[in-house]
Design goal:
Helix 2 packs parallel to helix 3. This protein has about 230 residues and is of the alpha/beta class. The strands form 3 sheets. It has a 5-stranded parallel β-sheet with strand order 2-1-3-4-5, sandwiched between helices. The radius of gyration is 19 Å and the shape is elongated. A hairpin with a 4-residue loop joins strand 7 and strand 8.
């Protein structure tokens, strides 16, 4: 999953990031409420782990803003507040789950897995599939029908993102934010370059191209063309 951690305690944020990366999640970190909300509003995260007390904007305020934007991201609030009225306030702000500090990382991971199953059906499966196109999430292999696709890590992330959002038009900036999330100064034209690379490997002679170019906007994966 793609997960955002919004936590101003940098030591705790780094620990959470390390634990999540060990579970093979893609993780971004923000240390204040405003930058965390800016990242969330890009609409590219499956789950957000949000501290209640943050500089700039608190956790419940972030939850309300995300829900107002009608984003499907699952929201998990972290807080030292354990009173019933605080939990009620957290849920009423739009949070989907609530974890009181201090917590065991095993519990955090279990809650994240549960949120993934609830909000993103594909995330609980071992495969992403669209027609004859399959990504095996356990072995990191890809195939179209019986033909195996030899993908680089960047091509894999690109195809994964397209599959997770099959049928939806994705802007170049959305693709850039997901595929190159840890790199700086990457230009939007890089998306076009890697779409071209991916098409060469994805499409054998005579096979339809499932990646549709939406002129001036971005790309879309069409399931009925695979």
């Amino acid at each position: 999953m793609r997960i955002l951690v919004v936590e101003d305690d940098k030591r705790l944020a780094r620990l959470i990031e390390r634990v999540l990366r060990d579970e093979r999640h893609t993780v971004d970190v923000a240390y204040d409420g405003e930058s965390g909300l800016d990242l969330l509003l890009q609409g590219t995260y499956d789950v957000a782990i949000i501290d209640w007390m943050l500089p700039g904007r608190d956790g419940p305020s972030i939850c309300r803003a995300v829900r107002a934007a009608r984003l499907p991201t699952a929201l998990l609030l972290l807080t030292a507040r354990g009173q019933i009225e605080d939990k009620v306030l957290g849920f009423e702000s739009g949070a989907d789950d609530y974890l009181v500090k201090p917590f065991a990382f095993e519990e955090l991971l279990a809650r994240i897995r549960a949120l993934g199953r609830r909000f993103s059906p594909n995330l609980g499966n071992d495969e992403l599939r669209a027609g004859a196109l399959v990504l095996d999430l356990r072995t990191y292999t890809a195939r179209r029908g019986e033909r195996r696709l030899d993908l680089t890590p960047t091509e894999w992330r690109l195809l994964e993102y397209l599959l997770r959002n099959a049928g939806q038009t994705l802007t170049r900036q959305q693709i850039l934010d997901y595929v190159w999330s840890f790199e700086h100064d990457v230009q939007p034209q890089m998306v076009d370059v890697y779409i071209s690379y991916l098409r060469r490997k994805l499409n054998a002679p005579g096979e339809p191209d499932p990646i549709v170019t939406v002129r001036g906007i971005g790309y879309r994966l069409e399931v009925d063309r695979v």
